[in-house]
Amino acid sequence: MTIALTAFLLIAAAAVTFFLARESARARTEAQQQFGASLARLVEPALGSPAERPGLDELDARLRAAAAAPEVTSIRLRDATGRPLYEHETPGESAGALARGLVGAGGGQFAASIERDGRVIGRLEIGFSSAHLNADLKDLVTAAALASAAAIASLLALVNLLLARAIAPLNTLTEWARGFAHRRWTLKIQPPDSGSREIRELHQALAEGATAMQHHIRSLEETRELLEHSESRLRKLVNGMREILFELDPDGHVSFVNPAWQALTGFAAEDTLGKPFRDFLIDEGAIQDIEPRALPRLHEKNREIALRTADGKRLWVSLQADAQLDAAGNFTGVIGTLGDITRSVELNRLLSRYQDELYQLSVTDPLTGLYNRHHFDAQLEVILADHLSKNRPVCLLLIDLDGFKFINDTYGHPLGDEVLRATAQLLRSQVRRNDYLARMAGDEFAMVLKNTDVESARRIALKVHTEITQLRIPLPVGHMQLQSSIGVAEAPAHGRNAQDLVTAADVALYHSKRQGRNRIQVLSPDLSRATMSIFSQGFQLRQALEQGHIHPAFQPIYDMDQGKPIAYEVLARLRQNGNVIPAKDFIELAEELGLTRDVDLHIIGEALTQAPADQALFLNVDLSSFSDRAFVKDLTALLKPACAAGRPITIEITERETIPFSDALREDLDDLRAFGCKLALDDFGSGYSTYNFLNQFRPDYLKIEGSFVRGMLHNESDRKIVTHIHELATSFGMQTIAESVENEATGKALQMIGIRNAQGHFYGVPKLNS
Hints:
The mean pLDDT is 83. The chain contains 24 helices and 26 strands. By secondary structure, it is an alpha+beta fold.
């Protein structure tokens, strides 16, 4: 307000000063023009005709008198022809800036033509000094300035006085505001002693506002402290996250990453910010989904993607990300997380590969690469169901290599394996594109001929048989020629399901071998009757097992020195129609039907139940049964608790065919020994027993083949063999058991050799417990 009043006074003073100066300049200019006009009238007579002119002296006197005036600086008088009649000039002060502004460029001059009767008779020019005008204007401006200064000073003094009186009540409010600015929230201010109602109301409003502001400020400070605490915790959580937390701008560029980014990818945060996120992706599908045009629709949950790391490796992460929108619905960017799942992905892929490999191992034969029996059984059912429903015949060829056991025994298992691989390769070359080929077991192969009748199957079998006959297996010296027996059966004529068809082909193969091997046999009505005969016996055997008609018989093993049994060998007996049938009469049938292991497990289980708990038992187990992991598991389940209970058990190994001493077999035997079982090798000296097998097997007991024991009293060679076996066993730290001791003389002869343990009818026949 003071400034406004001061400006107003200055403007008013300036306006008054300008008005006075202009009037003063105008008055002086008018006086100069009047002086010039008067002088022009005085000199006019002198410019007429000579008769009218006054004397020159008089004219000169008049002009000099005019030139003597203080303000006149020059006078010039000319006649009509321009001839100078009088000239006078003295120095004079020119007009100042203010004077020029007021009177113009022509100020301080008088010029006029002198006329008479309408014609110009001369010209008068007068110059005036501006000294007086300049002095007058200067005095006027000075006086105006002093007056303005005095007025402004008075005004300021008056305003200050008025303001001081007016704002005095506000000092308390100022003190409160200053204290409030310094955060002295509890400062108490007394209301001002003012007659102004407005001031009192203002103080009241400010006091209430201050109270409310104090409350809000405290709330804000508490909120700020909570926010700082929460921010600190959030920062620690974000920085401590194992997952990558990231934010993208609307263009898909990285605007934020937490420290986990550098820990997992190797890229520093400062090198990452501002770069397109898709530059760190590997898979084309993920790159397309992170394009800027796709980001507003982005919604990913547990998506598996791959990131490129600083060292060029692949980092598998689980992406969770969502597009972010503001209150107006505008897309503002993307926020998401990336969890490291590299180990999980690699493990899953490794597991998937292992599962594929395991599946291949479960359905294929590792030696030949053909499908195995398990896969064959399932696949044959599928093939039959598909073809028979469409009235299409299916034929099955079972192919068995003749004399394969001799090949293994003579040339060893490596060559036997080579024979199987070569045969499998040959069969692959013969099988048609849509047919099916598998290795059933050992040296037996199966070929399923789809949409093929029995006559076509016979021709195919003949071709396969011929190719096998022509196959040559290289030997160190010369080569080996193979022979095969093939059984052929047709569905639906010989069976509508897999089991019946395999049974029919198996019977045909069985008869092919019985008729001299190396031939093809198609199942005929006669063979069908033979099938019924064989499988009738098989049914009886299975039924006997299910109904408990196969029983353990116990034959004592004697210590001849002490004259008492040390253990009992457990033998299988079949009760049928009141007759007791020994194992030798049905064991071959059990082998043909694959029931040997079932019989062995049944007999062992019954023997452990029937025999007294402290009675030592010799339990017969076919060595080939150890190739069946299910059998080993069931055998372990039977023997482990019995051994743990303290029952003396010896596993008597029988060899119906030669078996390689594999690592798996060694582990199984070691497990049995660990339970507390001892091992015995049956019928040593005949069959397939070898010194190498004996050295690896290392049994606790060696049972001497009964034919040598029976003949030792009459045949010196048999006696020497028995002696040699005993000495061999003793050198290995084994005990010998002589089998088939029929009389006392044989027992004494055995004792003289040093054999202590014997078994045979002389010491006791196998007996059933009931």
